[in-house]
């Protein structure tokens, strides 16, 4: 196993302490939003070899998956992600139009879908997917959200979402739950707050997870978690951000129909191991609760280990490593280690 050096992203919504604490470094008053481990051009990792630190892609090739630690002190954008077909078409269209890859208005920075699994490391709050319209309508009537309720009852869920995002500014209703009131204070008059009231509001406990597939509408509100995803940075935003917003493209790819909250619980196995079942083959994730010792490998393809708690000898809290085909490593101690891999 080779040690990895990740890349920190200092986005404005980041927490100033969670990731520094994980890494054992002093906070510096900046927001530390994400810690990336992978080969994506937006934050390529380095790997330690006999020749010193070299790009991970040079050692293991371009990985099909990306692992992040995310620490949100403030809400992220209301967003969705494309599937592979839409991503490839959007990338080609923007290339043909001459939009630079690093342009702020660029939507498609690669040709991949961006399904993602977030595992809570602390209590983690999010909105994700749409509730049954009947339940949302009952809430509207109970809380006096008259205009939203009337629109939902008359036009249906999809048209109501389109109205909220395409029109405005809106007069937002009173009597909001605390999480929605915070959004309304930060984004007064924005229809994204109305959309949020139609969505599932979830608070994950440590170890619980969310699976967010193509088209799922979501926004992270607060907390620290570990994410594994396809190696992509394709994000289409509609609200709650100063970054580029494209409501038309958002509405074209978003799933504007109700569904169950996409909460995932790990399936316990043996030897302190548990896996997260997902309906896609882009990546996989296993949690290993090390108590004394555990052997990982031999690796099938390239795999990544990230320690989020404790000390496992070759990996301690905040450290990561890479295993290539056939490699194996023994973990010794008491620790929580996540093992991620891409398509096999």
Strand order of the largest sheet: 5-4-1-19-18-20-17-16-15
The top level CATH class name of the domain at 75-127 and 202-264: Mainly Beta
| Rg from Cα | 21 Å
Averaging pLDDT over every residue, what do you get?
96
Largest sheet: 9 strands, antiparallel
Shape: globular
Helix/strand/pairing class, anyone? Answer: alpha+beta
- End-to-end CA span: 19 Å
**What percent of the residues sit in helical stretches (DSSP H or I)?**
10-25%
Unreliable runs: none
Strand content: 25-35%
Helix count, DSSP H or I runs of 4 or more residues: 9
SSE string = EEHEEEHEEHEEHHHHHEEEEHEEEEEEE
CATH architecture of the domain at 75-127 and 202-264: Sandwich
CATH fold category name of the domain at 75-127 and 202-264: Jelly Rolls
**Strand segment tally:** 20
């Amino acid at each position: 196993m080779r040690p990895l050096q990740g890349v920190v992203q200092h986005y404005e919504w980041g927490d100033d302490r969670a990731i520094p604490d994980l890494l054992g470094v002093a906070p510096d008053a900046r927001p530390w939003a994400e810690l990336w481990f992978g080969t994506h051009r937006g934050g390529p990792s380095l790997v330690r070899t006999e020749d010193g630190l070299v790009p991970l892609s040079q050692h293991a090739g371009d990985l099909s998956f990306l692992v992040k630690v995310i620490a949100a002190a403030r809400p992220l954008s209301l967003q969705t992600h494309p599937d592979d077909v839409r991503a490839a078409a959007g990338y080609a269209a923007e290339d043909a139009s001459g939009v630079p890859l690093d342009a702020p208005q660029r939507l498609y920075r690669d040709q991949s879908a961006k399904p993602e699994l977030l595992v809570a490391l602390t209590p983690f709050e999010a909105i994700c997917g749409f509730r049954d319209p009947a339940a949302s309508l009952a809430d509207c009537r109970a809380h006096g959200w008259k205009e939203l309720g009337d629109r939902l009852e008359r036009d249906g869920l999809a048209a109501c979402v389109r109205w909220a995002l395409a029109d405005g500014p809106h007069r937002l209703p009173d009597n909001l739950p605390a999480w929605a009131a915070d959004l309304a204070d930060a984004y007064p008059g924005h229809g994204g707050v109305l959309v949020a009231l139609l969505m599932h509001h979830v608070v994950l406990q440590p170890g619980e997870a969310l699976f967010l597939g193509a088209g799922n509408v979501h926004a992270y509100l607060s907390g620290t978690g570990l994410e594994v995803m396809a190696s992509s940075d394709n994000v289409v935003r509609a609200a709650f951000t100063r970054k580029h917003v494209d409501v038309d493209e958002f509405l074209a790819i978003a799933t504007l129909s109700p569904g169950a909250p996409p909460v995932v619980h790990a399936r316990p196995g043996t030897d302190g191991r548990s896996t997260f079942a997902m309906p896609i083959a882009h990546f996989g994730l296993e949690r290993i609760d090390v108590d004394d010792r555990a052997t990982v490998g031999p690796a099938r393809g390239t795999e990544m280990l990230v320690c989020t708690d404790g000390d496992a000898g070759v990996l301690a809290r905040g450290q990561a490593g890479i295993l290539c085909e056939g490699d194996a490593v023994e973990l010794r101690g008491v620790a929580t280690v996540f093992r991620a891999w891409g398509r096999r």
